[in-house]
């Protein structure tokens, strides 16, 4: 069984995907991490994330980079969003995601285009979303806990910019697959969001 979980930043899709994977005993891939690794590698190379050649070269990042704590930084998220607009970058990361998705026994993948591009045959497709305000608030509390000095307004601005770029890019824009079930987590806590997702997956499979 393949479960595709797509949605914008800080919608709760990662938490839901992880919990579904644990529940069904399936491996989980956070595909955003791959784009973050490319963004981070461009930075380490002193390259330009808006240059398709620089970004493509960075897709050859070493596996060890996936453990770099800087991948979770907001700056890296911004770089990831910029390198992810290049079709050559998406193509280079396609096989890796595809083979994870089609391995024997199934998998849970979360990202932006799992249900539309990477695994359109997925048995269950969820599109997890939430208002910008709810997502900014969550990210703000997370950052505050990590001691990162940032304001709610800065986070909200950054989320809007990233949403805009992810939704309007020419290749694999962030849109729900036609057969995806939409889960709005704005008013849900973690447990409620997981319960809604589990119910959706059980209804779809
Ligand atoms: O989900 P996360 O915030 O880690 O993703 C970082 C960026 O990587 C996103 O803003 C998006 O531009 C890009 N991305 C993508 N396709 C995916 C996963 C992430 O374009 N499947």
TrEMBL record:
In terms of Gene3D superfamilies, this protein maps to: P-loop containing nucleotide triphosphate hydrolases (3.40.50.300)
Domain (Cytidylate kinase): residue spans on this chain: 3-202
This entry's Gene Ontology molecular function terms read: ATP binding; dCMP kinase activity
Does the keyword section mention Cytoplasm?
yes
Subcellular location(s) per record: Cytoplasm
Question: Per the record, what are the reactions this protein catalyses?
Answer: dCMP + ATP = dCDP + ADP; CMP + ATP = CDP + ADP
Top enzyme category:
transferase
The record's annotation in SUPFAM superfamilies points to: P-loop containing nucleoside triphosphate hydrolases
Its BP terms in the Gene Ontology are:
pyrimidine nucleotide metabolic process
Indicate which residues the UniProt annotation says bind ATP: 7-15
State the EC number(s). Answer: 2.7.4.25
Which keywords belong to this entry? ATP-binding, Cytoplasm, Kinase, Nucleotide-binding, Transferase
> Could you name the domain of life of the organism this protein comes from?
Bacteria
The main location is: cytoplasm
List the record's Gene Ontology CC terms alphabetically. Answer: cytoplasm
Q: What's the family?
A: Belongs to the cytidylate kinase family. Type 1 subfamily.
Protein name, UniProt field? Cytidylate kinase
């Amino acid at each position: 069984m393949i479960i595709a979980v797509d949605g914008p930043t800080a919608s709760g899709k990662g938490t839901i995907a992880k919990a579904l994977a644990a529940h069904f005993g399936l491996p989980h891939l956070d595909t955003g991490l791959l784009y973050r690794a490319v963004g981070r590698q461009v930075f380490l190379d002193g390259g330009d994330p808006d240059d398709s050649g620089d970004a493509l070269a960075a897709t050859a990042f070493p596996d060890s980079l996936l453990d770099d704590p800087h991948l979770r930084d907001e700056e890296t998220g911004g770089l990831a969003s910029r390198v992810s607009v290049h079709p050559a970058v998406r193509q280079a990361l396609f096989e890796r995601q595809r083979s994870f998705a089609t391995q024997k026994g199934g998998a849970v993948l979360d990202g932006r285009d799992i249900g539309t591009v990477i695994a359109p045959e997925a048995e269950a497709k969820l599109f997890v979303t939430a208002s910008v305000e709810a997502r900014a608030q969550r990210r703000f509390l997370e950052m505050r806990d990590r001691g990162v000095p940032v304001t709610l307004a800065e986070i909200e601005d950054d989320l809007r910019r990233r949403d805009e770029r992810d939704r309007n890019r020419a290749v694999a824009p962030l849109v729900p697959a036609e057969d995806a079930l939409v889960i709005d987590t704005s008013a849900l806590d973690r447990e409620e969001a997981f319960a809604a997702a589990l119910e959706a997956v059980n209804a779809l499979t």
